[in-house]
Protein 1
Amino acid sequence: MTDIFPSYSRMEQCVFLWFHNCPCGGELKLVERTSSSYKGKRLDKIRSRCAQCGEDVIFVFDCAYNPDHEPEPGHINPPETTSVIVDPLQWLHGAAHFLHLTDDEGPAISSKARAALVLNALGCVREALKFIPQDGQEIPRAALRGKLSRAFARQNPDSLKRVSLERMRDRLSALAASLGAVDSTSWWELWEKTQHSAGQAEKPDESESGGCS
Ligand SMILES: [Zn+2]
């Protein structure tokens, strides 16, 4: 029986995949994404493949989102939701991952793609901020579900602080504005491009699939 994970957006599913390895420890790469309806629910299925042993690993998501409604630029999940499947430090690492793709040493990408990646990083930081209670000053440790997240927080306690996260958010917001970023909706299209130009992606077999690993 496959576990079914609650999900609020497709991008969240991709970030989720970055933090899951094959049982053998190998890294998972997205192969295919499909959607279906079951008892009035929308289910997204991601088939991924282990880069080490070649086994397929499948994840099924119960999607509490309207697939026709794209999030606002610079946002990932709907504003009133807090992610269940990606913990706050995983979101921050997701932000770092997006920013890494904009590095000059990275694959050549257009300025529009660069701007969209910055917006996605901004969306990740906003997701992490949602974990801080309204009157709180930092992410509660109980929100850190991943073992690596807990270890990282022990070594970098400032990473949990509201003031650090808000500073990060404001910087990314200013950077996005300076790049003229207005559109993050085609993110996996450009993601796919960056993967291809890095020469490491498999060709997706479905139009809806994208390289998000
Ligand atoms: Zn494996």
Note: Strands lie at 4-7, 28-38, 41-50, 56-63.
Protein 2
Amino acid sequence: MSAPSAIRATGLTKLYGKLLAVDHVDMDVRAGTIFGLLGPNGAGKTTIIKLLTGLSDLSDGQASVAGYDVVRQPMQVKQRIGWVAAEVILDDDLSGWENLWLQAKLQRLGDWKPRAEELLRYFSLTDRREDKVKTYSTGMRKKLEIALALLHQPEVIFMDEPTIGLDASTRRSLWELITGVNREFGVTVLLTSHYIEEADALCHNISIIDQGRFIATGTPSELKGRVRSDFIELEASDGVTEELLRSVPGVAEVRTQGKAWILKVANSEETLPHLFRALGPERIRRLNVEKPSLESAFLEMTGKKIDQAGSDVHDYRKFYLNVRRSRQ
Ligand SMILES: Nc1ncnc2c1ncn2[C@@H]1O[C@H](COP(=O)(O)OP(=O)(O)OP(=O)(O)O)[C@@H](O)[C@H]1O
Ligand SMILES: [Mg+2]
């Protein structure tokens, strides 16, 4: 028998005025797995977390988390979930240990200290537990936030962009910790990301989300397996036209994205020599071949690259905006 559902939703919908932020989404997340919502900025990822955690009212549909209905049994749900927000929620003037203490008080936890010590050990923060959080690095803060969310031993933890604003190596070490939280603490994880490689590395199952709708759901390899084409991303000099690119043998579709052309081709190895011949090397400024991957799955299903709005520069600004907001 397969594991029970940790999260189930049918027809989950959120309207903000006339904006359909989440559009009749169905979800089924098996207990004990890591599930990823992968989509660009504004896709509706955070809104789904808010609906499932009871922070926002459903406009339509039903959802249950840890076996309880989010509308009718919100308290039972809250007791069984942890939430790691994209923005920083720690108190900078308190130490790591005091933040844990505060969390325990807010949640009226009884015997929380052994668990807090275990979590500090797991996240390698024991040495710094008496230091004020303002002296922590960004990665340490994120670890402490996850520790706070795990303090009351939730069954399900929601992580909204857990690695946003982190450098690549800290991001990778956090991936290992998140995998460990799932395996060693037996917690079901729902995370959001717009980093393709993050969803690929961490998640058992992924839903690709765009404009409030699930475009596809499956394991990372199932999603990659649906892609039949290669994509060639090309930056060319001004004289190159869509008509010219369409005439190149093997090119099935031509689109533009920013300054680049995106060519859908059956087989890039066969098409590239034709492309070089048609354009001449001097007219090619940059060229990138995308073999079947989650990135190309997203491209094929939505017609755009996932990171078109969400570059690291964008993340960085958003991260600090969130920090400022959380301080107000
Ligand atoms: N409180 C709100 N009031 C009105 N519109 C909102 C509100 N919160 C979100 N939205 C809108 O709903 C849509 C989905 O937003 P959401 O924050 O869920 O996206 P997201 O996928 O989390 O994006 P990001 O990657 O930027 O965090 C966006 O168009 C956003 O502007
Ligand atoms: Mg978000």
Note: Residues 309-317, 323-328 have pLDDT under 50 and may be disordered.
